[in-house]
Amino acid sequence: MKKRIILTGTFIGMLAIIFGAFGAHLLKKYLTVEQLATFEIGVRYQMYHAFFLFFLSTRKELSKRVLKIIYNLAVAGVILFSGSLYLLATNNLTVFDFKVIVFATPIGGFLLILAWLTLFITILRKKS
């Protein structure tokens, strides 16, 4: 499980760098300042959670079950939160109207909050 978490964190981090460079160099010709800011929020939160996964992989006090729950919440949260922001920010560049998936952003954010909350409660309950 820890290897999977590290590999996922590495992959998510690599994609964040790629998307960040894509946004900064290629998309700025085609997107408004607000759209670029939205895209950047997706990149930022994706990178934050790549580091979160690395941190998660170092926690020895977490059971495999809890580790898997937090991992799944974080990965699903990144996909829904950052992924929906990427699609919504670039909506005017596509033929499909991604505004129909606007609900995915808050759901993804909620999943990210649940991942952090699960970690917090689990560590809080552990006896020293």
TrEMBL record:
Chief location category: membrane
Keyword Transmembrane: yes
Keywords for this protein: Membrane, Transmembrane, Transmembrane helix
Membrane topology according to the record: Multi-pass membrane protein
Transmembrane regions listed in the UniProt entry: 5-24, 36-57, 69-89, 101-124
Subcellular location: Membrane
GO cellular component labels: plasma membrane
InterPro entries: DUF423
Family affiliation: Belongs to the UPF0382 family.
Entry-linked PANTHER family: TRANSMEMBRANE PROTEIN 256 (PTHR43461)
Name of the protein this chain belongs to: DUF423 domain-containing protein
Record organism: Flavobacterium hercynium
Lineage: Bacteria, Pseudomonadati, Bacteroidota, Flavobacteriia, Flavobacteriales
